[in-house]
Specification:
The complex is a heterodimer of chains A (119) and B (111). By secondary structure, chain A is mainly beta. Helices cover 0% and strands 50% of the residues of chain A. Chain A is built from no helices and 10 strands. Chain A is globular. Chain B is mainly β. Chain B has no helices and 9 strands. In chain B, the strands form 2 sheets. In chain B, strands 1, 3, 4, 7, 8 and 9 form a 6-stranded mixed beta sheet that branches. Chain B starts with 8 loop residues before the first strand and ends with a strand. The chains are: A mainly beta (119), B mainly beta (111).
């Protein structure tokens, strides 16, 4: 069964760091592009970052550039999102999902992990 | 700044047909990139509803269909059912972002 499971969310103070994990099962992430998408409470979906198959190419949204870093460990079948200098506006559910190509659809998505940034 | 524009909400009675438009630009839909639609039920993760403009994953009823023309796309739902009440998001690749661009989402209300 193809599945993605996010973990690592929680409550963190403004300015601190947090690392999210996206563990895949039922397939090898080395054949897929993986992205992170977030959703603030009651708001829409916002693309955050993606990593190519081998991690050689990474792209971030402007809103997180210089603060968030996406990485992957294909040997552990896991993708990470290192979030530094967290702000209140980073409070959201964070979802990971896979695609065969950056230009195509992402499916499935994980159940999400909630990050709450509080002062 | 790249955006995909959707109406905040649409509504329809059971059995009716509704459409949800998604307007983009030359850096996304207009560049010919695939348009996807995702359905998000309350309290759950988004689920792929349509891919590649008008293709349904296994298990999605044929009441759902998509179309694309120029810089716009549209989701149509026929034979509206109460269980269709959800948020719907369009998505396409944007070459100025280097990643996914999502519409603001449309809440479908079944009257």
């Amino acid at each position: 069964q193809v599945q993605l499971v996010e973990s690592g969310g929680g409550v963190v103070q403004t300015g601190r760091s947090l690392r999210l994990s996206c563990a895949a099962s039922g397939f090898m992430i080395s054949s897929y592009v993986i992205q992170w998408v977030r959703q603030a409470p009651g708001k829409g979906l916002e693309w955050v970052a993606l990593t190519s198959y081998d991690g050689s190419n990474k792209y971030n949204a402007d809103s997180v550039k210089g603060r968030f870093t996406i990485s992957r460990d294909n040997s552990k079948n896991t993708v990470y999102l290192q979030m530094n200098s967290l702000r209140a506006e980073d409070t959201a559910f964070y979802y990971c999902s896979r695609s065969e190509s950056v230009h195509r659809w992402f499916d499935p998505w994980g159940q999400g992990t909630l990050v709450t940034v509080s002062s | 700044q790249a955006v995909l524009t959707q109406p905040p909400s649409v509504s329809g009675a059971p059995g009716q047909r509704v459409t949800i438009p998604c307007t983009g630009s030359d850096s996304n839909i207009g560049a010919g990139y695939d348009v996807q639609w995702y359905q998000q039920l309350p309290g759950t993760a988004p689920k792929l509803l349509l891919y590649g403009d008008n293709n349904r994953p296994s298990g999605v009823p044929d009441r759902f269909s998509g179309s694309k023309s120029g810089t716009s796309a549209s989701l149509a739902i026929t034979g509206l059912q109460a269980e269709d009440e959800a948020d719907y998001y369009c998505q396409s690749y944007d070459n100025s972002l280097g990643g996914s661009l999502f519409g603001g989402g449309t809440k479908l209300i079944v009257l």
